[in-house]
Design goal:
Layout lengths: L1 E6 L3 H12 L3 E7 L5 H8 L3 E3 L2 H5 L6 E4 L6 H10 L3 E4 L7 H6 L1 H5 L5 E3 L7 H11 L6 E9 L6 H6 L3 H4 L2 H11 L2 E9 L3 H4 L6 E8 L4 E7 L7 E8 L2 E5 L8 E2 L7 E2 L6 H4 L1 H17 L7 H20 L3 E2 L2
Parallel strand pairs: 1-2, 1-4, 2-3, 4-5, 5-6, 7-10
Antiparallel strand pairs: 7-11, 8-9, 8-15, 9-10, 11-12, 13-14
Helix pairs in contact: 1-13, 10-14
InterPro entries: Gfo/Idh/MocA-like_OxRdtase_N, GFO_IDH_MocA-like_dom, Myo_inos_IolG, NAD(P)-bd_dom_sf
GO molecular function: inositol 2-dehydrogenase (NAD+) activity; nucleotide binding
Family: Belongs to the Gfo/Idh/MocA family.
């Protein structure tokens, strides 16, 4: 049984708390958040303790592992402090808002010996994972093109967007990791940003984008993002190879279809948001983390993966703002 603490009692903290509390090999022991009664309220739901200062988490001998869901600028400091205290770490994406922060902490990050895993949960989605396994097994021959569609049902609050680091660091970074998961090293990035929402435009960010990534193998990934989608949380993936194609479609609450005089094959809307759509992915991700900690095996996602995704996000941001293709060294 792994005693786990969560830092950050916001939306992602609630997701992880629910996942940890339901896992047979984990126990939610402590929730930390400095603001108001956020930690106390969340901890009370699951019979855990609460605190306001992260140092209490790192100094607590009962805690075996820490899930870092604090604001992004605190990811590296919290990750390092937990690791230095001998705690295993599952850290949310992105690793930082700026690659210079990673470079400044490189020596300390390289010195970490405790397990550290990053929350790229889409690798663990059963449908996406099944497509990736089929690609690896050669079911469609050499992978030539990958298409990833990710549209949110509605934009987040403007106050969140202002501090999110931009759509490519906050939203598309999941898709960048997915592309690397399928294609390997990315060598070229071209992004086109769109301003369809005036409120988000005023923050200096984009609310929609199309990104093309070229892999070292020559394969190409196309990523389509939008902060709003009338039909719900649109999450699809297509892998096309020399000998065939694989498709992961949207998930709905049921498989019921309606046909009548007005419609044919009408289905329910897509699941409403990531909490529902990726519930299984978060559960499987946590299981993979616990297994790595208990068996002493490498974590499925690493600091190197987090850094690579951030570099792509920064290249996409530059490309969208300059209209140029960015080559990665």
């Amino acid at each position: 049984m792994l005693n786990i603490a969560i830092i950050g009692a916001g939306r992602i903290g609630h997701v992880h708390a629910r996942t940890v509390a339901a896992h047979p090999q984990a126990r939610l022991a402590l929730v930390c958040d400095p603001f108001g009664d956020a930690a106390e309220s969340l901890a009370a739901e699951y019979g855990a303790r609460s605190c306001k200062e992260a140092e209490e988490v790192f100094n607590d001998p009962e805690i075996d592992a820490v899930i870092v869901g604090s604001p992004t600028p605190l990811h590296i400091p919290h990750l390092l402090a937990a690791a230095k205290a001998g705690k295993a770490v599952l850290c949310e994406k992105p690793i930082a808002l700026d690659i210079t922060d990673v470079e400044a902490a490189k020596d300390e990050l390289d010195a970490i010996t405790t397990p550290v895993m990053f929350g790229f949960n889409r690798r663990f989605d059963p449908s996406f994972a099944a497509v990736r396994e089929a690609v690896a097994a050669g079911r469609i021959g050499e992978l030539e093109q990958l298409t990833i569609i990710s549209r949110d049902p509605a934009a987040p609050p403007v106050d969140y967007v202002k501090v999110s680091g931009g759509i490519f660091r906050d939203m598309t970074i999941h898709d960048f990791d997915t592309a690397r998961f399928f294609l390997g090293d990315i060598v070229e990035v071209h992004a086109v940003g769109q301003n369809l929402d005036e409120a988000i435009k005023e923050t200096g960010d984009f609310d929609a984008a199309v990104v093309t990534l070229r892999a070292a193998s020559g394969a190409v990934a196309t990523i389509v993002n939008n902060r709003h989608c009338a039909s719900g949380y649109d999450q699809r993936l297509e892998a096309s190879g020399r000998d065939g194609a694989l498709f992961a479609e949207n998930v709905r609450a049921t498989t019921v279809r309606l046909s009548n005089a007005e419609v044919t094959d009408a289905q329910e809307p897509y699941l409403d948001f990531f909490l529902e759509r990726y519930a299984d992915a978060y559960r499987i991700e946590l299981s993979a983390f616990i297994e790595a900690v208990e068996k002493g095996t490498p974590t499925p996602t690493t600091i190197a993966d987090a850094v690579a995704a951030l570099r792509i996000a920064e290249a996409a941001t530059e490309s969208a703002r300059t209209g140029t293709v960015i080559r990665l060294g």
